[in-house]
Amino acid sequence: MLKKATTEYKDACLVTITNSSDASTIGSKAVFFENGDCFPGNGFPLFLEDSLSGKCLALLNKGKSRAVVFDEDGVNFECFIDVYPSPSHLIIAGAGHVCEPVAKLGCMLGFYVTVIDDRPEFANTERFPDVDKVVCESFLRYFKNVPLTCKTYILLLTRGHRFDVLSLQELLGRDSQPAYIGMIGSRRRISGVFEQLKEEFPVERLSQIYTPVGLDIGAETPEEIAVSIMAEILKVKNGRSGESISKDIRKLAPLGFRELEKK
Description:
CATH topology of the largest domain: Rossmann fold
CATH class of the largest domain: Alpha Beta
Number of strands: 11
Helix content: 25-40%
Number of domains: 2
Protein name: XdhC Rossmann domain-containing protein
Distance between the termini: 48 Å
CATH architecture of the largest domain: 3-Layer(aba) Sandwich
Shape: globular
InterPro entries: MoCofactor_Util/Proc, XdhC_Rossmann_dom
Oligomer: single chain
Pfam family, one: XdhC_C
Largest sheet: 6 strands, parallel
Order of helices and strands: HEEEHEEEHEEHEHEHHEHHH
CATH superfamily of the largest domain: NAD(P)-binding Rossmann-like Domain
Organism: Neobacillus notoginsengisoli
Structural class: alpha/beta
């Protein structure tokens, strides 16, 4: 069930009864999803579902695991609730040469990585053995059905602006929106995409697309471009500026860093 939670991008809790006045329940487990669904294991008391559901939701909101002690129907229970937040989902559309280092870096950074392309010779596990999922189907069909949440990060690396337009038409037209949409391309390609989209979507919606994609670090090789792109995605994910950490500290160099010591 925890694997199911990961692949469906749902937060979940694993509840284990560690102590109880009813010894037969000790060691039994259940998985609770963020929507309240419960999947009890063997021996887990079903009458605990309602009381534990609220406790799990509270801990999911805090992102913290902890032990809880309570009484239910005259029976004392001590449970440990392990919180398993769903990983952020990185979707890379277009399995070309830039996709490979981006996918590797995404996996290293703990994202659940999906690579999507409509060409079997590109979208296969031989080229992407380490990613969580490789999908070979049209971009339009995929983006019509894939779940979009505040933990979804979408990167368009397609082989032509026609595929960018089709993907964005589907994504921007959905009620739920991802945390990030980035699109690679030259200024001419970007202009062509926006020219086709501006009749359907307001400027405010188009301005949410990160394009040209990545932070300005002078990236040229596919590997450098991957670093630039993932740095921008982390910037958005973590709500940070993306500026050099040493920016303010370097100003203190002429003072011998004495001001830094005062802080």
